[in-house]
Specification:
Low-confidence stretches: none
Number of helices: 6
CATH topology: Fumarate Reductase Cytochrome B subunit
Number of strands: 2
Order of helices and strands: HHHHEEHH
Shape: elongated
Strand order of the largest sheet: 1-2
Mean pLDDT: 92
Strand content: under 5%
Number of domains: 1
CATH class: Mainly Alpha
Helix content: 55-70%
Length: 173
């Protein structure tokens, strides 16, 4: 089943969810740069892909939003008692997923580093742009907030599965 239904999410929604979840976890490995100045396996092997993976996530966020909007009428419904909180939590996650790569790009361009994605120079190195660097300064605080949102998201999924014993998690598996 490619499309979503009232009972469960379709294969495209699931694929986007789990692919992005894995890539976001990879992005969170950047926090290990704060340990020993990144002089370890994670810092030297996985973290160098941070900018490219961030750019890919920005594209996937756009794809996922358009896909979700197209599936809106047939998507599984939330418990009316908690629907507002569920929607607010997901909106916060989507904002984090969109704003993190945008502020990352602003950091790179604003500090004059240019933007290289998967080996392709998209924006050449140039002069510093104060307003872009300033907005890019929100990248790190947004990363911490998004990390907390992801932990909450996973925690709620596990709560639904193991405590409430409903089908909320199964709809995305």
């Amino acid at each position: 089943m490619i499309h979503d239904s009232k009972e469960r999410y379709g294969s495209i929604s699931k694929w986007l969810h789990w692919l992005m979840g894995g890539l976001i976890l990879w992005q969170f490995l950047k926090f290990f740069d704060r340990i020993n100045d990144g002089e370890h396996w994670i810092g030297q092997t996985l973290v160098p892909w941070h900018i490219s993976i961030g750019a890919l996530l920005l594209v996937l966020v756009a794809v996922r939003i358009f896909w979700a909007l197209g599936q809106l009428k047939q998507r599984p419904r939330h418990d009316p008692a908690t629907a507002f909180m569920v929607k607010a939590g997901h909106l916060a996650l989507y904002l984090g997923m969109a704003l993190l790569p945008i502020t990352g790009i602003l950091t790179m361009i604003g500090n004059g580093y240019g933007l290289k994605v998967f080996g392709v120079q998209l924006v050449a190195k140039g002069p510093e742009i104060a307003w872009a660097a300033s907005l890019g300064g929100l990248h790190s605080p947004l990363a911490w907030i998004t990390l907390l949102l992801v932990i909450g998201h996973v925690g709620m999924a596990l709560l639904h599965h193991f405590v409430k014993r409903d089908d909320v998690l199964r709809r995305m598996l």
